[in-house]
Design goal:
Layout (H helix, E strand, L loop, with lengths): L1 H14 L1 H17 L15 E4 L2 H4 L6 E5 L2 E9 L2 E6 L1 H10 L10 E4 L4 H11 L10 H13 L12 E3 L1 E2 L2 E2 L6 E2 L9 H4 L6 E2 L9 E7 L2 E9 L9 H20 L5 H8 L16 E9 L3 H10 L4 E2 L8 E9 L6 E4 L4
Parallel strand pairs: 12-13, 13-15
Antiparallel strand pairs: 1-2, 2-3, 3-4, 4-5, 6-11, 7-8, 9-10, 11-12, 14-15, 15-16
Length: 346
């Protein structure tokens, strides 16, 4: 079904090409125009807090920086009168009190000078010293944060999968949006299901986001990598079927990069972190998108063998093109959610 998913994705993207090309060109132009509107942070944000953003946020004239701890939104940073301020909303405060209730977080909702206020310092200290557990049900966000932290390691020591880094926008974590609603693709059983909106559809700006977009470097080559992340193995969504969603999103990324109207070269360079004056790279003649499902409890050798036996390890469905999508799996440690082992050739 992988090639069928690609064909249906291409059909939808061709049908609505003008809409998504225009919109993604607009995103990229505004992101570039906001190069000098980034918030200067002093002191910097340090682990275990992480800065997140969104593509739509980066298009705004005054982009915010969202702070997360263990994948949970706990506040945001914004520019105000030339200074950086921490903003804790009522929602942030309520969620933090629930999620991190092992200790008392008494920094009330409000806006506080990030560098000078005692409240901002206490906020940083609270999360730096928190040794409790997280008490709410958005477990996938916790897993995502742990997995991203593993990928972000710069050195080979304690890093099982080397030479891979998540794509960020100016050093901020983000989820790459797509115009596709594909979260129910794991439920399809036939080609007929693919044209049923219940399972898969074009959704304009309301489409799903790629769990993790990354760069994988092998020798002198860098490969854009789409990762579908699951916090646990479930019988109703085995890795082979979870791959459907990853394949649909990888197909969109390929079409985006190859699109002149959406400035695909510009998107390709953003994915390579070549922004704000860095000399641009040319899109390869043979574009390879690595497509991965990552979850605990996988036998990657068995999964790889299953793909090889069906000649589905490498997909080349693009007319008059040597571009391809390659399928892989990552087995995660069920406790740390770091990479335990992974497919050969990844």
């Amino acid at each position: 079904m992988y090639n069928d998913v690609i064909k249906e994705t291409l059909r939808l993207l061709q049908r609505y090409r003008t809409e998504w090309e225009t919109r993604y060109k607009g995103y990229l132009t505004k992101i570039a125009n906001n190069a000098n509107k980034q918030i200067a942070l002093s002191p910097p944000v340090k682990k275990p807090l992480f800065i997140y953003t969104t593509v739509s946020n980066e298009t705004k004239t005054s982009p915010k920086q969202y702070l997360r701890f263990m994948g949970q939104n706990v506040g945001s940073l914004m520019q105000k009168n030339g200074n950086c301020f921490l903003k804790i909303s009522e929602k942030d405060f309520k969620n933090s009190c629930t999620a991190f209730s092992d200790y008392v977080c008494d920094i009330k909702p409000g806006e506080y000078d990030w560098a000078k206020s005692t409240e901002a310092k206490r906020f940083r200290d609270f999360f730096a010293n928190y040794n409790g557990v997280k008490h709410n049900d958005n477990h996938e966000h916790t897993v995502e944060s742990a997995f991203l932290t593993d990928l972000e390691k710069k050195k080979g020591i304690n890093k099982t999968l080397k030479y891979i880094q998540p794509v960020e926008i100016r050093g901020k974590r983000f989820q790459m949006p797509t115009p596709l609603k594909a979260s129910n693709l794991h439920s399809i059983n036939s080609q007929a299901d693919l044209i049923n909106d219940k399972f898969f559809k074009y959704a304009k700006q309301y489409g799903g986001g790629i769990d993790i977009l990354a760069r994988r470097r092998i020798a002198s080559h860098t490969y854009i990598t789409v990762i579908e992340l699951k916090d646990k193995y479930e019988e109703n969504e085995p890795p082979q079927k979870a791959m459907y969603q990853a394949v649909a999103y990888a197909t969109f990324i390929r079409e985006l990069i190859r699109s002149d109207a959406a400035d695909g070269t510009g998107w390709y360079n953003l994915f390579l972190n070549k922004v704000d004056g860095t000399p641009p790279a040319e899109v390869p003649t043979e574009l390879v998108i690595k497509c991965i499902v990552a979850m605990p409890g996988l036998d990657v050798k068995e999964l790889d063998s299953g793909l090889q036996n069906k000649n589905l390890k490498v997909l080349m469905p693009f007319n008059n093109s040597k571009d391809r999508i390659e399928l892989y799996f990552i087995n995660l440690d069920g406790n740390t959610y770091c990479v335990k082992d992974y497919s050969a050739g990844l």
